[in-house]
Design a protein that fits this description.
Strand order of the largest sheet of chain B: 11-18-12-13-14
CATH superfamily of one domain in chain B: FAD/NAD(P)-binding domain
Distance between the termini of chain C: 52 Å
Oligomer: heterotrimer
Order of helices and strands of chain C: EHEHEHEHHEEHEEE
Chains: A mainly beta, B alpha/beta, C alpha/beta
Strand order of the largest sheet of chain C: 2-1-3-4
Shape of chain B: globular
Number of helices of chain B: 16
Largest interface: B-C, 131 and 89 residues
Helix content of chain C: 25-40%
Distance between the termini of chain B: 68 Å
CATH class of one domain in chain B: Alpha Beta
Number of helices of chain C: 6
Strand content of chain C: 15-25%
Radius of gyration of chain B: 30 Å
Largest sheet of chain C: 4 strands, parallel
CATH topology of one domain in chain B: FAD/NAD(P)-binding domain
Largest sheet of chain B: 5 strands, parallel
Shape of chain C: elongated
Bound molecules: iron/sulfur cluster, zinc ion
Number of strands of chain B: 29
Number of strands of chain C: 9
Strand content of chain B: 15-25%
Chain lengths: 49, 592, 203
Amino acid sequence: MAEEANFKCLRCGHQFKAPFSPKDEPQERACPECGSNSVRRIKEKAKKK
Amino acid sequence: MTDVGRHPRIELMTLSEVVDVQGYIGNFRVKVLRKARYVDEKECTACGDCLEDCPVTKPNEFDLGLSTRKAIYQPFPQAVPAAFALNMEECLGNNPIACGKCLEKCEKECIDYDMQDKEVEIKVGTIIVATGMDVYDPTELDEFGYTRFENVVTSLEFERLINAGGPTEGHLIRPTDWQLPKRVAFIQCIGSRSEKRGNPYCSNVCCMNTIKDSLLIKNHWPEVEIKVFYMDIRAFGKGFEDLYKRSKAEGVMYIRGIPGDIREDQETKNLFLLAEDSNTGKVMEHEVDMVILSIGLIPSTENSLIRQLLTLSRTSDGFFMEAHPKLQPVDAPTKGVFFAGCAESPKDIKDSVTQASASASRANILMSAGKFTVEAITSLINEELCKACGLCARVCPYHAIEFDKEKKLPARVIEASCAGCGTCGAECAFDAVVMRHFTDQQILGQVEAILEENPQDKVVVFACNWCSYAGADYAGVSRLQYPPSIRIIRTMCSGRVDEKFVLHAFKLGAPIVLVSGCHFADCHYINANRWTQKRVEKLWDKLEKKGIRPERLQLEWISAAEGLKFAKVMKEMEELRQGVTLEEIDYTRKEL
Amino acid sequence: MAIERSESDELRIGVFICYCGLNISGTVDCEAVAEYAQGLKDVVAASTNRYTCSEPGQQEIKNDIKEHNLNRVVVASCSPRMHEPTFRVACQEVGLNPYLLEMVNLREHCSWVHMHEPEKATEKAKEMVKMGVARARFLQPQIEKEVPVDRSTMVIGGGIAGIQASLDLANAGYQVYLVEKKPSIGGVMAQIDKTFPTMDCSI
Ligand code: SF4
Ligand SMILES: [Zn+2]
């Protein structure tokens, strides 16, 4: 199974899942909603109680 | 063609591929993989004795599978070099028990099953990219029935059918019954000029090719009825309109309208085309014996490797992008590299030859001068500040920095290899790297000039020279309007944009900062913009930790051809800017 | 080699604002920008020109460099991707290191993209000139490295274009390496019967 991560577009705010593995070469990403490249990976916060 | 084979100063390397390119203008080192031919090129006289006994029969690629060839073969009669080649994957085997028949037949003993692929390194001053094009495969356009109906052929297949050297020796026949078709239809713009399927651009050659084909048919078989279905006939070149008129005068019917659908009669294998003539508005069904799809040209599949090796870019149509569309149409953005022929855009033979001569002349200018001056924008290491951490050497896409881990000596830049992207300069934490002509001071000076007065009204944009800055130029040339709050700072590569440039801008009250560079595939510094992205990601984290909205730092990849995108993004930046409050800006100033 | 004058401590910056016919001056008030530039720190001369890239325009830069003993030049005209080489040569011709030139892209990045907002465009143009001057203060003379150019070419692809380029260069006296993936050169052209417009044979 391909690993996935959550991404957030810093232009329009859209959140989405996309294939991601920390081992991969960095990739060009674009928001599926607005096309912006300001796409940030949301890192899972350390599990809160 | 034969002149090439004979020329004392041309070394012809067939069955060969470029696998690696190192170096820079004037001093490229190219690795070429020479695949084994298994036939001695110099000795072979193409007598054909070996063919007789070869038991393997394969479709002949040159005739697009309309004829067959053996595992040992000459691609076509006028081939240069005029030598046979053996396809080892198809050959039954080099062991004489399995086959080895051709070996026995060849009196000159040119066949050598043990020949090996060889890699050679060649040093050259200039490179001409003439990788040509491929043709569009119309199978996806199901309504035209290509591959479903045998009597639907592509224009390139048709070329082979009417070629005297082709599989039918030049007799016009249709595939199902090998009879002369009485009624032939050409359909234009297959795979071209369509936003939905195929490609949006005009393939340039198909109209004239059809006109030419129609005349060829009329010359030999005047009784054949020809209908051409078209959107527009583009016959703009010298002598072209003449041919078009001649074709019409010969009775070729031109019908403005592309058939929506083709049906086949199961019995006769004739084809029925339903088309509206947009000149008369009438919908009619046309019965023909054979349909020729006038297929468009597409970028060569080979281009992607060459593009990476030579750090070239593509325009939106997928063909290579020139250094300047009007003023440097045959120069590649990479110095010392030039384009000839369809690699750059679809062209007919005359234009290909013209461009080839132009590129030869451009290369000649460099080589006859015998030297080239490199822009003094390379990196320098300040040995006093260098802590010998080795980070710069790690990030340099060109391996232009020497660094000895053991001895912990200051890093050293190999000037001739440094391309001046500035990635090392942005990454160095000790400010030990000086980018000549793009120093920290120079760039910070620009940032300060922007933000000295009314910083809240401005958007600070870092744009890389090759793509986003050029995209901004293109927006200008196209007179695309965007808000005047935008301030652009040029760097050679987005990889140059140091964390401190961005933070300094925020500290001085910038509401929005945009870092923009080339698309990943287009990076002019191999992969320097990967570091841009990583750096921006780090900055987002950093800003967030300090309670500053990461949205205020934006990232965008804009190519030189994307003037429209540039203008659109600038409008978005202005919208974002209006969403930044003065309180936020004040807070940021205090926090940083 | 040019005489390096920039080592002197005192900055003497000259600013040249180009009208580019109406391309810039149609939107931006170039005279106002020049006046503003004149008031910037370290700027000792600021002027406008109809076409800075023209022969007389370049001459004016050269004259000013000599007359005002300029050690930094800011040309506010079109994209550096277009005319930076032109003005670098002009500077060099009067002994100013070409790297002491800075260009401000008023045409592509201001007048052409803010055509309906002349006032704002003029304000922006002023600030762009200020940015250029700010950068110019820190410019340093640079010496360009010369690299030799090997007198040989590699042509990748043996279709009609590759063949033509190879023959031209080989006939001009250079060594040519023609690399073709297939077993024969000729490309798509060799597959075509007669070719337009002359309707003769392709090979
Ligand atoms: S500027 Fe770029 S190419 Fe030059 S040494 Fe630094 S990282 Fe390497
Ligand atoms: Zn979005």
